[in-house]
Design brief:
Largest interface: A-B, 51 and 51 residues
CATH class of chain A: Mainly Alpha
Order of helices and strands of chain A: HHHHEEHHHHHHHHHHHH
Strand order of the largest sheet of chain A: 1-2
Oligomer: homodimer
Structural class of chain A: mainly alpha
Strand content of chain A: under 5%
């Protein structure tokens, strides 16, 4: 990947981040002094994530010709669901992580009950935020249904369950199915919601599910590569955890060299596939091409 | 309250329960063998609750002239949100309850991670289930927005937060505000969703918020009275917990005698108020008149 392309992607990510941060800073809406929960949620929500999912929502919306005002609420909703899942995942009796995005996790900062309720609140409010999308009720309903499905038992929550309850002989197909839920579902639904917000028809959106799933898999694959070979300071979270706990992931099932080769191959496939879709998907393709080279 | 009225209410509750149970037994939808979570959720969802909220959804829908088919998904959605909140509330680092509806709580049966994820799943799926309501997208969107608001920071989650973080000098106004969120919001939204499903206009529904809140308060008041004077076998959950933990509730702030008198007064007020609404609200009024006499 050329340096000029890397710079272009950095600029696009920065633009998406600058676009979504002010709105995220207003979420969840205040409870009128009733509790500290909204401000605790904001601590987790605005602690400097890369905003990859909002970038995908916005890019997908623009790819089909929609302006950013149509997709801002979807971008925030997806980031809120993502953040809720991190908060609950990090709990002591779940993955037991104390560091996230370089800061103490919410239960370390504020206690377990606050982290349980804070996660609950972010999920509820994600649906409320998505419902604010200024489009027709039929379209907004479809978006709500797709977010609910992506967050549900077959995908996000199901993948988290698999991750918590691995079989003794977790193999590559098992890991792939786990990632389809735990990581890919929210990446895929980011593309779906963006395209719907931009005015795409359901058929086109359904046709994108495959590429969305592959992009999500690539994202997790490069995350697992970094978990093996990155360092805590750069990543802002503990690395080497899967290996330390003997947990199966993409790298452990296929080996580091094959994982790196697969990442490059998938990256090429995804950008070729995107080029065949109607509209200008170059921003999303740029991310796919960058992922095998990410350093954090 | 006459014995004939009690029997009529019992018959109506039984009818609502028989109506909602088969659908609840199908929820959340299967994850195609992916995880045990849907069946764990069903354990909590179908463990014999009184189904007061589904009864209210159905009665409210019928009061404004709607058939039960219009409100079945709303009835299930409300029961799912209620059940999620019980599962998370019962967690060891929250209220730490091991018994609910006469059975071990979900974290006792299946472990804390399963209970965290099971609660998450029920909440997500509640929105998916409500979205299945066979009415126009505009009406369904309004129902989704109202459920999200009732479950959110100002109401359900906010009330749970207050309950977990009481001030040292919790007084009657504090307790009343806590109940408005923790209990009344889901009772009120049951009436709202039922009326909307039945075809009522938003104005009529807004006009019912006051009576919904009072009914929710009455419900908690009689629950607190039973927590003081009931027994574990009849209730199917531990009693006397608030007193044991020095937690403020309606009874501790106003005393048992005044609580009982207040329950009778509120009960009369609610049934008079309901009689002034358009439609036949007699089933809801029957419940309000019964509550001060409930034994479990």
């Amino acid at each position: 990947m050329k340096e000029s392309e890397k710079s272009r992607l950095q600029a696009l990510l920065k633009k998406a981040s600058g676009w979504v941060e002010p709105r995220l800073g207003e979420l969840p809406e205040s409870s009128g002094g009733l509790s500290r929960l909204p401000s605790l949620c904001r601590y987790s929500l605005t602690s400097g994530g890369k905003r990859v999912r909002p970038f995908l929502v916005r890019s997908s919306c623009e790819a089909v010709g929609g302006g950013p005002g149509r997709s801002i609420h979807a971008a925030c909703a997806v980031e809120m669901v993502h953040t809720y899942s991190l908060i609950h995942d990090d709990l002591p009796q779940m993955d037991d992580d104390d560091l996230r995005r370089g800061l103490p996790t919410l239960h370390v900062k504020a206690g377990v009950p606050q982290a349980v309720l804070g996660g609950d609140l972010l999920m509820v409010e994600a649906f409320g935020e998505l419902a604010r999308t200024p489009l027709g009720a039929g379209r907004v309903s479809e978006m709500l249904g797709r977010l609910s499905a992506a967050a549900g038992p077959v995908f996000l929550v199901g993948g988290q369950y698999m991750d918590m309850n691995p079989p003794r002989d977790a193999d590559r197909p098992w890991v792939e199915r786990m990632i389809l839920g735990k990581t890919a579902a929210m990446i895929r639904v980011s593309l779906e919601l963006g395209a719907l917000a931009g005015g795409a028809e359901s058929d086109l959106v359904d046709g994108m599910q495959g590429v969305g799933d592959r992009l999500g898999y690539l994202f997790q694959l490069t995350d697992d590569i970094l978990d093996r070979s990155g360092n805590t300071d750069e990543m802002g979270k503990r690395v080497g955890k899967d290996a330390d706990h003997g947990k199966a992931n993409t790298v452990s099932t296929i080996g580091l060299a094959e994982a790196k080769a697969l990442a490059l191959r998938l990256s090429d496939e995804i950008s070729s596939e995107l080029a065949r879709f109607e509209g200008d998907w170059s921003a999303v393709a740029l991310l796919a091409r960058y992922l095998p080279h990410r350093r954090k």
